[in-house]
Structure formats: C-alpha cells, structure tokens
Write a structure and sequence with these properties.
3-stranded antiparallel sheet; binds zinc ion
Amino acid sequence: MTNPAPTSHQTYPCGDCGAHLQFTPGTTSMTCPYCGAQQAIMPQQREVVEHSYAALGEKPRRNPEQVPPNLFVCTGCQAHTESDAWSDLCQFCGSPVVVDQFNPDLIAPEGLIPFQIDKNGARHALRAWVASRWFAPNTFKKVDEAESLKSTYLPHWTWDAKTTTTYRGERGEHYYVERDGKREQETRWYSVRGTVARDFDDVVVPATAHVGSKPLADLADDWNTHTATAFQPQYLSGHFTQRYEIGPDTALETAKQKMTSVIRGDVRRHIGGDAQRIHHMSTTYRDLTYKLLLLPVWILAYLFNGKSWQVLVSGQTGKVSGERPWSAWKITLAIIAALIVIVCIVYLMYSEQ
Ligand SMILES: [Zn+2]
Ligand SMILES: [Zn+2]
C-alpha cells in the first residue's frame, strides 16, 4: 500500500508571539491562547448554495471508506500524523492543523455553523441535564468536572426536495350502536385515493458513524441550518473536525425516510374522517439538492461499568442529548419506596372498613 501524500493544511500564526491562533466560540475571531491577541475572521463573500444531486454523477466520492486518510505535517514541530480528520491538534505539540485542500475523491463541505456555545456554556448545560436525572449514578454526576469535553465539527448532509405523493387508503367514520343497554363505537370504512404535495427544505442527516446515532438523530431535528455560513477553514482552528463516513447515497435514503413520515401525516390529514388506513403511497422526488455542513458539537465520552457512553451538547443551542447509565441501587431504593407506599395504602383501606 502506498503512503498517503502530505495533505496541504493551514495554521494561523499569531502576529504577536508566533503561537497558533484558535477560533473562539461565540465570536467571529481567532484568539492566541498564549498572549490573547485577536484576529477577526473576514466574512465570506460567497453564499451557501445547494448542489444538484442529479449532477453528482458516478464519482468515487460517493464511497468515503475507500478514500485514504490525510497525512498532516505539523508546521509547529514537523511531526507527521495520519488522520481521517479535517482539523485536529498535533499529537505531539498541540498546534492546531486545518486541512485546506480537500481530497478530490470527497465532497468538500459547503458551509458550517461556527460554535456559539463555549466550553463553560457546554459544561453548564451538561450540569443542568445531569441534575435533572435522578437515576444517574453519582460517578456520572462528577463526570462533567473532567476535562473530557471535546469541541468537534460533525459532518451532516442537508436535503431539499419537491415531492408529490399518490396514495390509496380508507377513511373511517365512527357511529354508535346500543348493545345490551351500552353505547358502543363502530367504524364504517370508505375507500379513498388522492394526491398530496410537499416541498422539503434542509432535512438534516448525520454523516458520521463514530458518534452514537440516537443522540445525533435527536440533535439533527434541532439545528437551525439557515444560519450556516460558507465554509471557512479559520473556524476549525483549535477544534476537531471529522470527515464524513456516510456518503450522499446512503444519507439520501435516510432523508427520504424522514420525508416519508412527514408525508404520511399529510396523507392522513388529506383522508380526513375519524380514522385513516393507508394501503399504498408512491412518492416522486423532484429537484433533489444537497449540501455538506459541518455542525458544532461538544462531545463528552466517558467509561462507566466497562461501557463507553457519549453525551452531546449542541454548540449552536446548548441542547443536550445522550445516553446515560442507570444506577442499580437508586432504582432498587425507588422500588422499595413504592412498595412501602402500596403497603401503607392497602393497610389504610382495610383499617377503614
Ligand atoms: Zn500570541
Ligand atoms: Zn506538532
């Protein structure tokens, strides 16, 4: 196997002391972590645009697993690092490295949402989330004190489409009958067919397989993608950026599933009546467009009972989503307490008779 060629990448030296500037969440500037010097990030003249899916063609970029990792040569210490990341910190000297030439076999990010929430804000959101979870073990409650929060841009696809759906089904109308002196509900069914249309804008689909899919899907419905700015490498400096692992074709299938569940609701409303049955739906998608966005997430990963857990904090809104362990003894205590209450109620009921 041939070694990957060094990837062209950028660092942003501080004009005052020569250290490397990093993007500061919640601002539009980079800051020097050593001397505090600031440098504004010039806004891009370019707008974020959607790309035609039909024009994507049969390019190798559809299959990200086959694309070799990047090789970074650190400008701070000259160390060579192989990485699937688009931005990272040098393992040896900690200098930020940001890719500035994307592998032509991959689709380059169109835009990004810069971090709005800084580390303190993320920790704050996390603490509130943990505090509201009574069953979480105490070790988990201490976890937010650890320095394990990592600011990471995660790749996401967004999809637009104009859809038309024809359907066949049944409309149910309730009526009531007297049976043995009781009023009972029955339903009369009428067969129906029809057509509904809906335009979708920015259906968000995660493009990473490394992060828990459930918490990520949870956040996917929370992003305000219309605030995304055109891609600018400066925003990645000092933060980790993952390159996409889920290609556009797989992501499109997921996007269509999300659209279908919305369309299903449209069809039910269109059928009307008291109850609906859908027997068949056929959807055509026109003007399919996509773009690749880098979205800001604070990731907390920790070990508990030999299992690794992940909690995500949106770097845009501070929304927290994650799996959490349940504490065995706290649950046992809760069950015992509930049993005691039941015994007391039963005792009172009998003593009153
Ligand atoms: Zn400096
Ligand atoms: Zn280095």
